[in-house]
Amino acid sequence: MIDDLRPEPDETIEDRARQYIDPESREPLFQQVRRFLEQSLLEGRFKPNRPLPSSRHLAGVLGVSRNTVSAAYQELTALGLIESRPRSGLYPAAERLATAQAPNAVDGPARQRPRSVPTGQVDWAQRLPRPLGADLQHAAAHPDWTRFPFPFLPGQPELSTFPSRAWLRALNDALAGPHLAPSLRDSVDGDDELLVKAICREILPPRGMSVSPNEVIITNGAQQALSLLADLLVQEGDTVSVENPGYVDAWHIFRNAGAHLHPLPVDGGGARVTRADAARSEFLYLTPSHHHPTSVTTTYARRAAILRAAQSEDALVIEDDFDSEVRFKGRPTPSLKSLDRTGRVIYVGTFSKFVAPGLRLGFVVADAALIAALRERRRYLTKHPSGHLQRALGLFIETGEYHRALRQHRRHLSRKWETLMEELERELPFELPPVPAGGLSVWIEGPEGFDGTRVAELARERGVLVDAGERFYLEAAERRHIRVGFNAIPLQAIPRGVQLLGEAIREQMAE
């Protein structure tokens, strides 16, 4: 009866069984036997209308216990692949197997499956798509930054200066009285009304914008805002012009949406955008308030030229204003969107650089039609950001705690910037060019022979974290830069940290 299990011409039953059954495997033996039999049934290796081998007979051939085969048969019966006929035995379930073997058994295109059932772990490398941005650099990540005594990083908070008490009050108030329901409800695709109104009334006017609530959507940080925009607007083959050097995470988001990236040069006046750049692009992605990573502010003349080029070529502009709120000298620079009269500038803001990046709260300001479409797209991805955090942030702004803490933060940043500049001038073995009085980092270009990537490695060995400049370039990476942030590092640690950074630079240049 075991002869009914017909092998290929030069293949024995034992050979076939060895492909599926491994006594050393951690997988239960009866499941291995069940998979062997299942594949044999699906491939039509059992003769129709003939009983299957008895459990005793099959156990002897496969070298397993009779109970193992019986357990496998029970699972196949439960799956409907075999059926029991009274006083006759077990048979292939012809109708069920015919359906399983049919190439178009269900509506829709047939899914191509491998011929044989795999015996080991799923090969996810074959199933997962390759990221379209695999050729791009990745932004430096320092998840262990708190272990380093001198973290010269712009994107992490100085923990000791966070307004913990005021924030805790806002969190507690958000769970009391009339605020409890907005904090805990399922808002479907809606945002917290208090927070949206606070943004319209308190956050946007200093940046030159006067908008209505239906022109604002809350996001899980600026990253989700860019992802939603790319998902909704960018089509395969579109071109997005990006600053070079620029924001690496945005490049990955646009590339994975199917876009080509076109580099825009940056100098002391910000990104240089010509009409030809706008003509070849569906989108321009810019950081005009404080360019990422050099911190230069785009001049008014450049901003006007960008808007003229975008309008003449019908390109859209995505303005990422990631840190204008924490400008430590002067008032926040009016946004590019505040100059826009055609509705083509999409403004992305975030609370990450002041409140905290871990809270993941940001927003988009755009035409009401686009906001409605983003809201619909977000609903089926994440619904909405945390209602509790939204209401707490709305209360934090409404009570004045936000601006009170922001003023203190600006004064503290100003002292840190001044200290950093004094120490860099003292410790660097070369002259430092003029540095923009804004942003949260200093972009340093070294002389001939300066290798920023090597400097970052040597500095890390001394407990000093800085970013190598080559990570921020889209094409032919430049290695003559480092970025020295001053948001995370305590004021009193700056002098010693710069001293050690200077040692690393001198060691690299002497190599």
UniProtKB/TrEMBL annotation:
Q: Which UniProt keywords apply?
A: Aminotransferase, DNA-binding, Pyridoxal phosphate, Transcription, Transcription regulation, Transferase
HTH gntR-type domain segment(s): 27-95
Recorded source organism is Demequina mangrovi
* Region (Disordered), start-end ranges: 1-24, 100-121
Q: Record's InterPro entries? A: Aminotransferase_I/II_large, HTH_trans_reg/aminotransferase, PyrdxlP-dep_Trfase, PyrdxlP-dep_Trfase_major, Tscrpt_reg_HTH_GntR, WH-like_DNA-bd_sf, WH_DNA-bd_sf
Record carries keyword Transcription: yes
Protein name, please?
A: GntR family transcriptional regulator / MocR family aminotransferase
Classification from the root reads: Bacteria, Bacillati, Actinomycetota, Actinomycetes, Micrococcales
Family membership: In the C-terminal section; belongs to the class-I pyridoxal-phosphate-dependent aminotransferase family.
Q: Sorted alphabetically, which PANTHER family does this protein's record hold?
A: HTH-TYPE TRANSCRIPTIONAL REGULATORY PROTEIN GABR (PTHR46577:SF1)
Against Pfam families, the record matches this protein to:
Aminotran_1_2, GntR
- Where is the signal peptide, in residue numbers? none
Gene3D superfamilies per the UniProt record, alphabetical:
Type I PLP-dependent aspartate aminotransferase-like (Major domain), Winged helix-like DNA-binding domain superfamily/Winged helix DNA-binding domain
Look up keyword Transcription and say if it applies. Answer: yes
A single GO molecular-function term is: pyridoxal phosphate binding
